[in-house]
Design brief:
With about 160 residues, this protein is α/β, with parallel strands linked by helices. It has five helices and five strands.
Length: about 160
């Protein structure tokens, strides 16, 4: 059975256990073994040890399901974005999901109350406009709106190899 690393900020939510159980059940029901980053038993918790344990889980996983919903602001959780990049560099199949798949420029305009024609954010910084929901470096892996859709996509996905 293939192993899916369940990347995302779900471990930070008050209902982390409920989220964990739902994701693990979703994996089981679709023929996968889910691994959840919060399952590392590191006591006392130390940042370096948690990071290394999560990276080892990614190395040992067959594929990654990444929760890229906005977290603490406009963008996805930075730790999850790191995990996506790390897994991609290892040649793993990564499928991300977000509940808002509008192009980044549209999302930012709404988030910062910008005009429909504005191409810069409130700080005057250019916003890329490639029709992707996130930065071009990983926006292409956002293939689903929910974890359920992402797991379904993982059933038929092949690893992406960079050239």
């Amino acid at each position: 059975m293939k192993t899916v690393y369940l990347a995302g900020p779900d471990v930070f939510f008050p209902d982390s256990d409920t989220r964990r159980n739902r994701l693990l059940k979703l994996c089981r029901n679709n023929g996968f073994v889910g691994v959840y980053p919060g399952d590392n038993d590191i006591n006392p918790p130390e940042a370096k040890m948690i990071r290394e344990a999560n990276m080892k889980m990614i190395i040992n996983a067959d594929c990654i399901c990444a929760n890229l919903n906005p977290f603490r602001g406009f963008e996805p959780d930075s730790g999850t974005v790191f995990e996506v990049g790390f897994a991609t560099a290892l040649g793993k199949t990564v499928v991300g999901y977000t509940n808002d798949t509008r192009p980044m420029i549209e999302r930012l305009r709404a988030y910062q109350s910008l005009s429909e024609r504005q191409m810069t954010d409130k700080d005057g910084l250019m916003v890329e406009n490639f029709g992707l929901p996130n930065n071009l470096m990983f926006g292409h892996i956002v293939l689903a709106r929910t974890a359920e859709e992402a797991i379904e996509r993982l059933k038929t996905s092949q690893p992406e190899h960079s050239e």
